[in-house]
Write a structure and sequence with these properties.
mainly alpha; 96 residues
Length: 96
């Protein structure tokens, strides 16, 4: 059975700037301002969520996103990042 947040990672559909730009013509730059909000950026490079990587295996940064998602702790944290990112987007919509 699928998980709403994990499915966004596997399909690259949802909270990612790249998806939001393609389908809704929104700015693709991540809220951190560093780069385009792709799956890889949000989970693996975004400074907003960097604290999650501190508890991951030492070699996590050398893995691609699919290999990272095979590690239970990383998969759980990645889904949490997506959930928090979605909450942030919805909060921003509510205040505008």
């Amino acid at each position: 059975m699928g998980n709403f947040y994990e499915n966004q990672i596997y399909t690259a559909h949802g909270v990612f700037g790249t998806y939001q730009e393609r389908f809704f013509h929104k700015n693709p730059i991540c809220d951190c301002g560093e780069e385009i909000g792709s799956v890889e950026h949000l989970i693996m490079r975004c400074k907003r969520w960097a604290s999650y990587g501190l508890s991951w295996p030492k070699n996590w940064a050398t893995l691609d996103i699919l290999k990272l998602m095979r590690i239970a702790s990383c998969k759980k944290d990645a889904a949490k990042i997506i959930k928090l990112q979605l909450a942030s987007i919805l909060r921003d919509l509510d205040t505008n």
